Amino acid sequence: MTSKLRLVFATLLIGALAACQSGVKLDPNAGAGNNPDATGTQTQPADTTQTTIDPLSDPNNPLAKRSVYFELDSYIVNDEHQQLLQQHAQYLKSHPQQRILIQGNTDERGTSEYNLALGQKRAEAVRRTLSLMGVSDTQMEAVSLGKEKPLAIEHNETSWAQNRRADLVYQP
């Protein structure tokens, strides 16, 4: 019985010693920074080149959103789109060489004449809003596509809501 206890005790002692062993090798020069006689190497920062990404090309930038949606038979720019248009206005004012085409769209309901007129009113409403935000009239053009360029092709309210919009198309 005593030999079994000794064997268990020896095993526990060896296990405890093994657990205390560190796998990390200590740096013999650690703390040399405080020693004035120590020589060390100083790492040079890597060459850093700043690249500027055009916010229009950045899918994470708010300017990536370029559609303003409207209620049924309406051409009133809702409050929820004011901030988006403000961001586009800031960009256009800071880039006076940039031009946009505002395309007014409608859903498939209604006559062609009605949809062309409503699409034009939507495009003009967005243009007028941007103009009030300080964008030059020479930077904007408003056209109607009516129901000719649907974003969604299903015949239900969800699709029609996606098609009632004005798109901001930046011109090269």
From TrEMBL:
UniProt record similarity statement: Belongs to the Pal lipoprotein family.
Subcellular location: Cell outer membrane
Major place of residence: membrane
Membrane topology: Lipid-anchor
One GO cellular component, as annotated: cell outer membrane
Record key words, sorted: Cell cycle, Cell division, Cell outer membrane, Lipoprotein, Membrane, Palmitate, Signal
SUPFAM superfamilies referenced in this protein's UniProt entry, alphabetically: OmpA-like
Low complexity bias (residue ranges): 37-55
Subunit structure: The Tol-Pal system is composed of five core proteins: the inner membrane proteins TolA, TolQ and TolR, the periplasmic protein TolB and the outer membrane protein Pal. They form a network linking the inner and outer membranes and the peptidoglycan layer.
Superkingdom of this protein's organism: Bacteria
Gene Ontology biological process terms from the UniProt entry: cell division
Leader sequence residues: 1-18
InterPro entries referenced in this protein's UniProt entry, alphabetically: Bact_OuterMem_StrucFunc, OMP_bac, OmpA-like, OMPA-like_CS, OmpA-like_sf, Pal, Pal_lipo_C
NCBIfam families xrefs: Pal_lipo
Function description: Part of the Tol-Pal system, which plays a role in outer membrane invagination during cell division and is important for maintaining outer membrane integrity.
Region (Disordered): 30-60
The protein, known as: Peptidoglycan-associated lipoprotein
